[in-house]
Amino acid sequence: MAGELSFTRVLIANRGEIAGRIQRACRKLGLEAVAVFSEADRDAPFVAEADHAVCIGPAAPAESYLKVDAILEAARASGAGAIHPGYGFLSENAEFAARVEEAGLVFIGPSPEAIARMGSKIEAKAAAEAAGVPVLPGYRGADQSDDLLLKEAQALGVPFLVKASAGGGGRGMRLVTDPGAAGEAIAAARAEAKGAFGDPTVFLERYTPRARHVEVQVLGDAHGHVLHLGDRDCSLQRNHQKLIEEAPAPDIPDALRSAMRDAAVRLARAIGYRSAGTVEYLYDPARAEFYFLEMNTRLQVEHPLTEAITGIDLVEWQLRIARGEVLGFAQEEVSFDGHAIEVRLAAENPAENFRPETGTITLWAPPGSVRLDSGVEEGSVVGHHYDSMLAKLIAHGADRDEAIRKAVAALDDFATGGVGVNLAFQRALITHADFVAVAHYTASLAEMFPCGWTAPVADDETRALAALALHLHLAPAPDTPWQSLGAWRLTEAAGRAGAACYWSDDADAPIRVAGQRTRLEVILPDRTRLGVEGARLTAQRLTGRMDGAPFTRRAHVLRSGHRWQVHLSAPEGMMMVPLRTLQDRHLQRASGAAGGADTLRAPMPGAVAEIRVALGDRVSKGETLVVLEAMKLLQGLAAPVAGLVAEIYCAPGDTIAGGAPLVRLDPENRT
C-alpha cells in the first residue's frame, strides 16, 4: 500500500445516511469510525453502527453539528486522527478545515485555501476564467455601489440574475425580467445574503432559460494527479434543490461532453485540488454551450451515481488521498458502465406545498433490488431540526431506459408508514414524459405540473383489496384443520358466513367483506360485488383471485391512532388506504376527534418564526397567520376559516409541538 497510514480512527462530523456511508468506507479500509451526535440523534442508526460515539450537544445544529469546538473536543477525547465532514453542515467551511489542521488532525477533503477560493462565487468564476472554463456574461466586480450595479445591470440586459457571492441553494438569488425592478432585486438579494451567509456581496449574471444542470466529478491527490470520473445531470429541481439525478448526463453531444470534463480537470488542477470535488455547469441545449456555475469542494449527495457507473468507491478514495496515497489509476483506466439514477426520499408532503413531515417511522420496508443509502429505520424519530432527506435510492441499468424501469419498480415496492415520504411524487417525476424524453430543465416543474401535483387516489379495486387485506389480518389463518373447517356435521353444513364492515376516511358507506376464508365477497359502497377465491396474506403479500383473475400485491397492515393503514402496491405505485372498523368508528366519535375547526394547529413540531396577525384582526380563509420553521424550511400556516382573531397562543421564537394550538378564530358567521 502506497503512503504511510497517518490515522487509524476517523471522526465523522455529520449525521444520517452520509454518516453511515462514511462508516462503511472506514470499515472497508480497517479504520475505526467515531460518530458525533446531538441529543435528538441518540438512538439513530448511524450512532448504533459506529465503533465509538460522542454526544456533542442539543438538537439545534448551531449547538451541535455546527459547533466547531465541540467537534474538535470530541476528536481529542475519542482519539481520532482525522475528521470527515460529509456534506452540508461544516463540509465547505474553510475556517473549520483550518481549525482541524491546526489541531494536528487530518481534514478529509481539500485544503482550506481551495475551499475558501471556491466558496466565493466571484473568486471561483475568476479562477474558472483563468483556467479557460466558459462563464456566463455578467458583473463580478469588487465595487458594490448601487450606481455601478444598476449601470452594469442595464448593460447586461434582462433577463438576468442577482446572486449572492457566498450563497448557495437559491438563497440570495433574484431573477430580474423588468429593468425597472433591478434596484429592488439587488437590495433584496443583498439583505438575504447578509442574513443567510453574513456577506452581502452580490454579482450579476445573464439568465439562461431552459438550461440544464450538469456536473463533472473530479478526484485529485496530494501529488498533483487530477482526473474526472464522468458527469451527472441534476436538472430536476425544486427551488434550486435537487430531486432526481442521473449519470451520465443524457443527450449531450460527445464533443461537448469531453469539453466539460476536460475543463473541470483544468480548473481542479489550476487550484491544486485534492480529494473529491464537483464542477457544476449550466448547459444550454439551444446554444449547445456550457457555462461554469460553481465548484462544490466536498462529497456530493449524488456521489453514488458515479460509483455505480465507474465501480470506484469515492469515499474510500477520499480516505486514501487524505493519508497521502497516490491515485491508483489513470484517466484512461476509468471506464463507464451503463446508466444510474438516484431518487432522493424526503419526509415531506408534496401535495400540500411540500409540507415537512415529522413523527415516528412505524413502517420502513424498502426494496431489496437496488442500492439504498438510508439514515433511518423502523422506529426512527423524524424531527424538525434537520434537513428532510431520509434516504437515497440508486438504480443502475445497462442503459437509461432500464435504469428508469428499475427505479420505478423499486419505488413501487417501497412501503413506509408513520411519516409521510415523497415516494409517489418522485415516481410521478421519473415517469413523466418530459423526463423520459430528456425535455426537462432546472425550472420545468411548473410546466410538468401546471396545476400542481395531486397525489394519486386509490381506485375501487385497490380499496377493495385493502379492505380484504385488513379483513385477513384481523382474522388470521387458523392453526388446525378443526379451526379451518369451521362448524360442521356429517349430514349438512352448519354455522353461517361471517361479515365485517370497513370505512375509508370521510366515507359514510362501508366496504363489506362477507363469506368464508376460501370464498369471500367484497361489496363496495356503490354495491358493486367482487368475488374472491383463495385469498391469502402471508409474508407481506396479498394473493388470490378476484372475479376469476389472479392478483398479487405487496401489502403491509399497521395500526395508527384510531384507524388502520393498509399499504398496498397498485398500478400508480405504493398506496396507503386508511380504514376503520366499526369499533374504530365508535372510538372516533367518543373522542370528538372531528372538532376544533376554528383553531389553527401546528402540523408538525417547529419554531415560530413570525406571527402575521394581532388580536381582533379580520382574516380570510387561507390567509397566512403564522410562519413556522421546520426542517430548515419556512412554512406559512393558513387560516382554516374566515373570521376574527380571538386568541393567539404563541410568540415568535417559541418551540412548539405538533398539533399544538396556535391561533383561535371566531368564524365570520358568528360575528
TrEMBL record:
Cofactor(s) listed: biotin
UniProt source species: Nitratireductor thuwali
Domain ATP-grasp: start-end pairs: 125-323
PANTHER family in the record: CARBOXYLASE:PYRUVATE/ACETYL-COA/PROPIONYL-COA CARBOXYLASE (PTHR18866), METHYLCROTONOYL-COA CARBOXYLASE SUBUNIT ALPHA, MITOCHONDRIAL-RELATED (PTHR18866:SF33)
Residues in Lipoyl-binding domain copies: 591-666
Domain of life: Bacteria
Gene that encodes the chain: accA1_3
Identification of the protein by name: Acetyl-/propionyl-coenzyme A carboxylase alpha chain
Chain ranges of the Biotin carboxylation domain: 6-450
